[in-house]
Amino acid sequence: MYRPGRPLALCGGAIGFVLAVLATVGCGGSTDRLVITSSEAAFVPVIESSDIHVGVPRLVLTLLERDAQPQFPEDAAFRIRYFDPTEDGIKFHSEAELREIDVEGLRYLIASGPPFDTAGQWALAVTVELPDGTAESTPRLPFLVRRNATGLARGDPAPRVATPTTADGVLERMAEPGPEAVGLYERSAADLISGGAPFLIVWASAERCAGRRACARALEQANELLQQKTLAVLHVEPFGRPRPQPLQGLIDKASEAWSIEAEPQFFLVDQDGTIAARFEIVVEQTELEAAVEALAP
User: Fold this and answer.
1) What pTM value is reported for the model?
2) Which CATH number fits domain 166-293: 3.40.50.1000, 1.10.10.10, 3.40.30.10, 3.10.20.740?
3) Would you state the pLDDT for residue 210?
4) What is the C-alpha separation between 21 and 44, in angstroms, rounded?
5) Interatomic CA distance for residues 259 and 218, integer angstroms
6) Cα separation of 209 and 262, whole Å?
7) Are 126 and 109 contacting, i.e. CB atoms less than 8 angstroms apart?
8) Which of 13, 132, 190, 238 has its CA 20 to 30 A from that of 3?
9) Which of 237, 233, 236, 239 minimizes the C-alpha distance to 268?
10) CA distances from residue 295 to 66, 161, 273, 283 in whole angstroms, order as listed
11) Of 272, 276, 275, 274, which is closest to residue 291 (Cα–Cα)?
12) Fold of 19-145
């Protein structure tokens, strides 16, 4: 989930601030933009992804009903409708199915291959198709698609910056990992890049993450891959309890270099030190393992 840092443009607010989307005068004002008003909507969409740009491979959403997730039957289907910017305002662009990832009862919706081919103000709406043949839709949510990624993306060089290890005292003030998980903290990303070793680095503050269940799940996924011994796996807790210097400075420097503004974050780095894949917030274990297998020479 997005953690406050520099603001993410969302019609005058940060992503996650969803109620401001509902005024027709908010972002350039075409009168045909809105289908449903806030008073009519049973729930609203929330964008969990923190870095939305032209060519972004996936978009992560949740649905919010007041201060909780709405409940739907297990066999409900979810679709996303995209609206893109034109000279006359935001117009319907396309629609697609959404995949679901359940994290201990929390439903995340994944849009694969969003059609963001132009930078500017886009909008989306989510429709829930119920087993009885009825459907419910959200209001349109406007958001900014940037021309380029603000953080690291596939094909970018991984930062040659040290990440904290057990030698740096990284386990201080962290929940003590089991003996099988200590390997997550034994090596630094900078050393692995210099040595030409591919690796997965997972950024998640398991105890203080805003989306705590997703962060705990990410740490479990990292440990599972570590036990498979396919490649090196690292874990960094970017937003945990303050640590003594110089450890805190090391964590802050690494977090800034990797552009960590939301968590969890998964980065796969190949033997050339290039970002091979990035997953924000949630990813299926099978999808993560497939990306790892793709790194094999």
Assistant:
1) 0.85
2) 3.40.30.10
3) 63
4) 10
5) 18
6) 9
7) yes
8) 190
9) 233
10) 42, 22, 12, 17
11) 276
12) S-adenosyl-L-methionine-dependent methyltransferases (2.20.130)
Q: Which of 67, 50, 62, 38 is nearest to 14 (CA)?
A: 50
How high does pLDDT run on average in the chain?
Answer: 85
Which of 178, 181, 185, 150 shows the shortest CA–CA distance to 164? 185
Q: Find, among 229, 233, 152, the residue nearest to 199 by Cα.
A: 233
Q: What is the pLDDT of residue 206?
A: 75
What residue spans of the chain are helical by DSSP H?
189-194, 212-228, 247-257, 285-293
* DSSP 8-state class, residue 213: H
Q: Which residues of the chain have pLDDT under 50?
A: 1-37
For the chain, strand residue ranges (E) read 44-47, 58-64, 77-86, 89-97, 99-103, 106-112, 120-129, 135-137, 141-145, 199-203, 232-236, 265-269, 275-280
Side chain identity at residue 146, one-letter code: R
Domains of the chain by residue range: 19-145, 166-293
What pLDDT, on the 0 to 100 scale, is given for residue 40? 63
CB-side exposure of 152: number of CA atoms within 13 Å? 29
Do 61 and 47 meet the contact criterion of CB atoms below 8 Å apart? yes
Rounded to an integer, what distance in angstroms lies between the CA atom of residue 234 and that of residue 7?
Answer: 28
Q: What is the pLDDT of residue 28?
A: 35
Task: Give the pLDDT score at 283.
Answer: 97
Candidates 159, 202, 154; CA nearest to 56 is 154
Residue with tokens 């909008």: 123
Decide: 181 and 223 in contact? Cβ < 8 Å.
yes
Domains 19-145 and 166-293 share a fold: no
